[in-house]
Design goal:
Oligomer: single chain
Strand order of the largest sheet: 8-7-9-14-15
Number of strands: 15
Strand content: 15-25%
Helix content: 25-40%
Distance between the termini: 27 Å
Structural class: alpha+beta
Radius of gyration: 17 Å
Largest sheet: 5 strands, antiparallel
């Protein structure tokens, strides 16, 4: 499989990313106190299918999973880092909620995530979300032909470190397009000049996952949800983008 996408494939991914961004924006707007994550999942699937597309995560079975993922939308609340299965416990004021969504448009995949505040949240939660969002933007700026995946991880780690947050090391950004997860592996830490060299035409997803406490995580009993080991809050933001000879093109903006 080539990790370099053709101009025709990039055009399909561009439209898929646009559609995904619109769906995720609408789902985020519906993420409020009293709403059940299961309702958000139903909304995400309805909007994706209304556009003639397919949910990327529904029934997706990673190599390490024993069963397929049972939902369209990953909903990760408070100490859940990623891959939260949407349930029936209503959201409440003070929660922070990670929404991770993938879409398949004309056979090609895009992937994006945001963390949403429910009502008034703590100063600590607000700052965690701000720094994580900023880390994503810094990582995106490093995603240029001639740079390395380590350059992306380096700037993310450097931005997060002064705040003494935990960087999740077991999970990472990744290539995307032909499959939901492709090479290259893009950790949210690293050294300049290390890792895979980036080339124009690569399509990647950058996704810092940052914890208010340590970076240690645990796998929940549902065998999908990763949560912070110390029970601290976690924030997650993600975009799919195309590597070019200049500034990257963010497809899911």
């Amino acid at each position: 499989m080539s990790y370099i996408k053709s101009s025709q494939e990039i055009e399909i991914l561009r439209e898929g990313g646009r559609r995904l961004a619109l769906v995720l924006k609408e789902v985020a707007a519906a993420t409020k106190a009293g709403v059940m994550p299961k309702e958000l999942d139903a909304l995400a699937e309805k909007l994706i299918r209304a556009g003639g597309d397919e949910p990327a995560f529904l029934n997706y079975q990673p190599d390490m999973a024993r069963i397929p993922f049972p939902a369209t939308l990953c909903v990760s609340v408070n100490d859940a880092v990623v891959h939260g299965i949407p349930g029936e416990t209503p959201l409440v004021n003070g929660d922070i909620v990670g929404l991770d969504l993938g879409l398949k448009h004309r056979g090609l995949f895009t992937d994006a995530a945001v963390t949403v505040a429910i009502g008034k949240i703590s100063k600590e939660a607000k700052e965690l979300m701000k720094i994580t969002r900023e880390a994503l933007e810094l990582g995106i700026n490093e995603a240029r032909a001639g740079n390395y995946t380590g350059d992306i991880g380096y700037v993310i780690e450097r931005h997060v470190a002064p705040h003494h947050y935990g960087i999740v090391r077991e999970l990472s950004g990744h290539g995307v397009g032909h499959e939901i997860h492709e090479e290259p592996y893009i950790p949210n830490y690293g050294k300049r000049g290390e890792g895979m060299k980036l080339k124009a035409g690569m399509v990647i997803a950058i996704e810092p996952m940052i914890n208010l406490g340590s970076g240690d995580i645990r796998l929940a009993k549902d065998k999908f949800t990763y949560a912070t080991k110390d029970g601290s809050l976690s924030a997650h933001f993600e975009h799919t983008l195309v590597i070019t000879d200049g500034a990257p093109e963010v497809l899911t903006r």
